[in-house]
Amino acid sequence: MHTVVVGGGIVGLASALELAERGLEVVVCEKGSIGSGSTERAAGGIRAQFSTPTNVELSLASMAVWSAFEERFDVDIDYRRNGYLFLARTDETTAALETAVEMQNERGVPSEVLEPEAARERCPGIDSQKFVAATYSPTDGFADPHLALQAYARAAGDAGVDVRTGTPVTDVLREDDGTESGGRIVGVETPDAPLEAEYVVNAAGPWARRVAAMADVDLPIAPKRRQMMVVDSETPVPESDPLTVDLETGTYFRPERDGEALVGGHLAGDDPDRDPDGYDRGIDFDWAADVLETASEWATYFGPESRIKRGWAGLYAVTPDDNAVLEETVPGLITAAGFSGHGFQHAPATGRLVAELIADGEASLVDIGALSSDRFGTERERLERNVV
Ligand SMILES: Cc1cc2nc3c(=O)[nH]c(=O)nc-3n(C[C@H](O)[C@H](O)[C@H](O)COP(=O)(O)OP(=O)(O)OC[C@H]3O[C@@H](n4cnc5c(N)ncnc54)[C@H](O)[C@@H]3O)c2cc1C
């Protein structure tokens, strides 16, 4: 075997597909079923409005894939380029947004800073009095994570990837080279049999720290529970509305179909360091009431007659600076995890970069120097923190 990918979420499957398309023999070990991790619990947001150059570059490279997805995979993933609207209530947030927009524009992202009234033209339901500025980019949007994940799984299988569900990796094996830390990766252990491999890809999302530990590597990637709900709003949310975020309260919504909206936010109930196997996958009543009330204070759609239809919780895999780890961590071990809430949208580029690291020995699609794990605990971690 050439490569074993640990994790059948969108990052693992995109990596496996890209490797197979380069003619390499790949097995994906997924301990549960395809979709049992975070990917199918995501909001599906896809944006280039980030505050670090690396995240913007990952977005642009991924958007090229999302835009041509239907032609390549023959699946309509309901990709809607409605834009993203970020709303600021303070001068400090506005300044951070202005700096980010300048950096984004230098890279060709058509984002812009708007006055509150102009923001209301993009999203008629906001109370513009509450805000001092906004940013908007028309090429941002969202897609259906379930459809995208299943399309990647099918394409990987068609390309020759051996996708094994119900197959947990229980150990990552390293050559005994006489050193304490261990030598090159030589394979993995599974309940069925050990699998020899030249490369192992850690794409285990919220479980990535555990998989890294199997190879005697410590990475600061923590599971963090996040909740979402579908709301039948008092006033229908237009299907053309952008994904709209109030940066100060952390609440956001995006239109679903038929006037409903997906609503989320990081208020109460947003607990770090959950056991990734044992967390509550439903929503907390207090969280739902709190988020809906907060959203109703700035978005007129969510009046008292709004009804919560259903909701769910999933796990972000967060790092201290909210940026991913993407690197060859020890010889033969590729880490592609810790995406901190942007792993769905960045998976297409990540898959390509994992394949480049393995097949070419270096990444070229995007400069991923900022995503190496040696940044943790240094000044780089503070300076390159992703704030939007
Ligand atoms: C509520 C919510 C909203 C979100 N919204 C967005 C959004 O709008 N846009 C965006 O880009 N991202 C969003 N995200 C984040 C996104 O879901 C993740 O970043 C992304 O799905 C990560 O994909 P992954 O493949 O790394 O992980 P996962 O999909 O979690 O896959 C990891 C897989 O590894 C498997 N695994 C773990 N350990 C082992 C083992 N030892 N052996 C074998 N298999 C193993 C797991 O079973 C799992 O299936 C959101 C997340 C949540 C929870």
Strand order of the largest sheet: 5-6-4-14-15-16-13-17
Shape: globular
- Write down the CATH topology of the largest domain: FAD/NAD(P)-binding domain
Bound molecules: flavin-adenine dinucleotide
CATH superfamily of the largest domain: FAD/NAD(P)-binding domain
Which ranges are low-confidence, i.e. pLDDT below 50, for 5 or more consecutive residues? none
| Radius of gyration using CA atoms only | 21 Å
How many structural units, i.e. domains? Answer: 2
Global mean pLDDT: 95
Got a strand count?
Answer: 19
Which structural class do the helices and strands define?
alpha/beta
The ordered H/E elements are EHEEHHEHEHEEHEEEEEHEEEEHEEEHH
Count of alpha/pi helices: 10
Strand content: 15-25%
CATH architecture label name of the largest domain: 3-Layer(bba) Sandwich
Approximately how much helix is present in the residues? Answer: 25-40%
So what's the CATH class of the largest domain?
Answer: Alpha Beta
Sheet bearing the most strands, described?
Answer: 8 strands, mixed
Intertermini distance: 40 Å
GO molecular function: oxidoreductase activity
Protein name: FAD dependent oxidoreductase
Pfam families: DAO
Organism: Natronococcus amylolyticus DSM 10524
